[in-house]
Amino acid sequence: MDKKDWRQIMRGLSLLTEVGLMIVSAAALGFGSGYLIDNLLGFDLLFKLSGLMVGLAAGFYSVYKLLTSTFDD
Amino acid sequence: MNPGPQIQFYLFGNELLPITDTLIVGWVSVIIILIGAKYLTSQLSIRPNGKQNIAEFMVEMIYKQIEPMLPGEGWRFLPFIATIFIYVGIGNLIGVVPGVTNPTGDLNTTLGLALVVFLVVQYEGMREYGVWGYIKGFAEPVIFLLPINIIGELAKPISHSFRLFGNIVGGGIIITLIYQAAPALIPVPLHAWFGVFVGAIQALIFGMVAIAYISVAKS
Fold first, then answer.
1. Is the model's pLDDT at B164 over the cut of 70?
2. How far apart are the C-alpha atoms of B182 and B179, rounded to whole Å?
3. Which residue in chain B has the smallest CA separation from A26?
4. How many CA atoms lie within 13 A of B130 on its CB side?
5. Is B208 on the interface with A (CB under 8 A)?
6. What is the pLDDT of residue B2?
7. What is the band of A72 on the pLDDT scale with cuts at 50, 70, 90?
8. Residue-wise pLDDT tens digits, A15-67
9. Are A26 and A55 in contact (CB under 8 A)?
10. Measured between beta carbons, which residues in chain A are less than 8 angstroms from residue B117?
11. What is the pLDDT of residue A47?
């Protein structure tokens, strides 16, 4: 195993935990924003659910950008 | 058992600016780094001696992590990434000393570091594309990606800080439980595992993720 392989392993290891947590934190952020908007406008679930969906999408999209940017070489 | 930071005293009066044990250990870590840097870089020469070899090895090791992800800009980002890497590394390893709390086991510390990385990422994005170009990039390639990109960007410091905080606090709680359950059997290798190995790996990961975020902003 040469040094380049080790660097790839370290990069993979560093992103391993970040990937899962990024999806969760983006989803929580989306849900939290929806919760605030729902409280402000007097809705029940509308913005909470849409916020959660947008948050999940944001998490997956961020992970996609992070992985393509990190492993493009 | 309260794993959170403990208030030692207040800087002003009875309520203002609480100084916690993690903050004090954080300052001690900074002093250790300053003394170490001064010692390792005193009497530099063209032909390196023992301690200069250690300093050069560390600089080169961190540089080799940055350069493949930010081609041609390894030296520019080295001071920033190396500062993060060394501070988080010392902050993680100092917890091996009995009775000393990890500064990275406090969410205030890790969130502070993650926010610094977040600001640098925004600055680098604006430096690359211009202020308006960078802001406009959040709505590209299609406008409906705007909320997705904004939430994704704001989630970065949260996930960045919570991962380091969670790993260090989780390790500390496991060690405490093991100490209570089987004090004479497992603690030494387990303490070495969570204190030294996990601490070093987490420092490397924190720095690598910071490089990855900067790389995303510039790409």
1. yes
2. 6
3. B155
4. 3
5. yes
6. 62
7. low
8. 777 888 899 999 999 999 999 999 999 988 899 999 999 999 999 999 998 88
9. yes
10. none
11. 93
Among B68, B159, B216, beta carbon nearest to A25: B159
Structural domain boundaries in chain A? 19-70
Confidence of residue B1 (pLDDT cuts 50, 70, 90): low
Predicted TM-score (pTM) above 0.90: no
Q: What ipTM does this complex have?
A: 0.84
Q: Which residues of A41-64 are buried (b: 16+ CB within 10 A; e: fewer)?
A: eeeeeebbebbbebbbbbbbbbbe
User: Is residue A1 pLDDT above 60, yes or no?
Assistant: no
Number of Cβ within 10 Å of residue B153's Cβ equals 20
Could you say which DSSP state residue B20 is in? E
**List of chain A residues whose C-beta atoms are within 8 Å of the C-beta of residue B167:** 17
The gap from C-alpha A47 to its chain's centroid, in whole angstroms, comes to 19
Chain B from 39 to 68: CB within 8 A of any A CB:
64-65, 68
**B contacts of A13 (beta carbons < 8 Å):** 201, 205
Give the Å distances, CA to CA, from B151 to A48, B7, B32, B199, B205: 14, 33, 38, 30, 23
Whole-number average pLDDT of chain B: 87
Tell me the C-alpha distance between B13 and B209, whole Å.
39
Residue with tokens 């870089």: B41
Return the H-helix or E-strand segment holding B216. Answer: helix B198-218
Calpha distance B169→B4 (Å, rounded): 8
Label the pairing between strands B7-12 and B16-20: antiparallel
Mean pLDDT of B188-192: 74
**DSSP H or E segment with residue B149:** helix B145-181
* Contact (Cβ atoms closer than 8 angstroms) between residue B166 and residue B67: no
**Residue type (1 letter), A56:** L
